[in-house]
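Input record (Table S2, row 710):
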Amino acid sequence: MAKKNTVPTNKKHDDLAYNKETGTGELMTTDQGLKINDDNNSLKAGERGATLLEDFILREKITHFDHERIPERIVHARGSGAHGVFQVYESMAKYTKAGFLQDPSVQTPVFVRFSTVAGFRGSTDLARDVRGFSVKFYTEEGNYDLVGNNMPVFFIQDAIKFPDLIHAVKPEPHNEIPQAASAHDTFWDFISLTPESMHMIMWAMSDRAIPRSLRMMEGFGIHTFRFINAQGKSCFVKFHWKPLLGMHAVAWDEAQKISGKNSDFHRQDLWEAIESGAFPEWEFGVQIVPEEDEHKYPFDLLDPTKLIPEELVPVMRIGKMTLNRNPDNFFAETEQVAFHPGHLVPGIDFTNDPLLQGRLFSYTDTQLSRLGSPNFHEIPINRSVNPVHNNQRDGHMRQQINVGKSSYHPNSTGDGFPKQATIAEGGFSTYEERVDARKIRARSKSFMDFFGQATLFFNSQSEPEQNHIVDALRFELGKVQTPAIRERMVGLLTQVDHTLALKVAEGLGIPVPKPQEPLNHSYGADANPADYQNIPQKQSIDKSPALSMANTPKDSIKTRQIAILVADGVDAASLKAMKAALTTAGAQCKLIAPHGGFIKDNKGADNPVDMSFLTAASVIFDAVYVPAGEKGLMGNADAIHFINESYRHCKAIATDETGLLDETYVGAKFKKGGGAAAGIITGKNKSKEFIQAIAQHRFWEREKNDKVPA
Ligand code: HDE
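Output record (HDE complex):
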């Protein structure tokens, strides 16, 4: 029978060119399907002659290459993605009719993209920055996008200031310096003139801005949203993601060094965790506020520079997200994924948060510029699992081949289809919020406490965390060239906490100036400044333990990276025992040696080296262990530096013997009678103590007494 040619319409396209199992594969073709006979030589007029314009194969290949890049995202350009699933623990029908929050047996596929905000696409992962935390839920009712960050508040209250904020933080326009950094004049100039940013500044200067791993950070929807149940009753809701591995950060000195040693540190960590089957997990949390409580708090629920302390409204953990599959192709998935806070499902709706309202415009607009067509929803990563039926037609790169002649509604040519869905059929209807107002450009008086929650955040931090905020501000403002900007900033800090301002001023070598007057432009052109006197400055609580990373669970060493320093002659038994204990507890061990290849243990066996001192660095590990038989490492400057630096960054260190340790800063300290520092474990068979120490993540109190030369 003759083979029938069919036009490939929406057939799933499997383009794996080579099958490893069978050793068979596809022949190379042009984009038009023509088999290529020579992919190594362009068409020339003779062996030494000019290349011919006729060479359509060469031209097709080069043209495609020339257009391989699309504009990177204006913000959140640097990102890493992963696939996974979400499952609700029990039905949330009481609060919302959202289909994916009803049935605990249903797994909803998700795609998540984490990002930094300011840097370009190729910038370092370890920049001091906010992290984007976007989740696309592929629900049966259409895509729901929760496009959040790893901090629960934002810099500004009104979307109209977003371009200013981003222009200020991006590299300065005259010389495009600095990359992926807020430590420069334009950013702090804008911030010093925008007091509403002070709460977010506390977060951005805290350790939350330098996470140990994307898998170890919280996520937040930031804005207050609405849930609506089947009876049409609405309540307010804030969304949270709680990482099951706890929240952890690196030290700032470490972050800067990681940026040089491995600028893909977070991306690689996420990738490798998923590849090794250590799937990252977060619990999905909601804070529910009944509609009648809208005005109960000393802050406005619509103000995105405020959070609801968990001590006032507990976070209910209602489900779990597991990331279990890496993308097949970075560009097709992570780069082309298009999030939008306006991708909603029935049962979830917006509030009038003025930042959220502006975002609802921005995200489709940005996709048009980035992805180049209103058909971006047809790119596989953006497709809804619920089939799309509407009368939108044509446009650049349209994939769907719409059949029939009706492309309008109402129609009789298509029997009236596609028809509108009734509410009972799952049709979306906007929550009917009452509106009765004047059109004005003004900010609500209830938004005008700029410092109360900044102070709450600062007061809720542990002592090391507070010190890190001071250091971060000294660093950032220390890089600012214009004295007036530094002074304005310290003036603002006095309104958060006077000691904080004093310490920062001391580091900068400037006096503490008087606090600045509130800026008139914050009120709005149509506002009467007299209405804005006596703004409440008091939060209902003084401390919120949930805001401190020091209170995160510290009971696991799962997926932690442990460096084992070895040289020829290492004691085989010690090495084997510690490796087994750490691996059983879920950590991953890497053998680091003076050279690559193999090292010979004291039993004569060859042990493969994972990294040499040249390619490894202490900053990419969580802890370090030196087994017995360390002679080959003694006097080795790299090994000594490795331990000193681990100590400086407050990590757990274990050594069976003390020869190498004695050559380090740590050993010298012991000798001087400094006593055994927390997190330093010496002696054989101490795997239990070492594991407990690693689970503590860091011994930050070391910083107080020690300035380690590393
Ligand atoms: Fe975004 N934001 N944003 N943003 N945002 C974008 O959309 C914007 C804001 C956030 O992984 C852009 O597709 C405006 C808050 C994340 O692909 C753009 C305003 C929060 C991502 C845009 C905000 C976010 C973006 C650029 C102020 C936390 C990365 C590329 C009104 C709740 C999504 C894109 C991804 C991306 C606009 C403020 C989170 C330009 C106008 C607040 C995580 O549309």
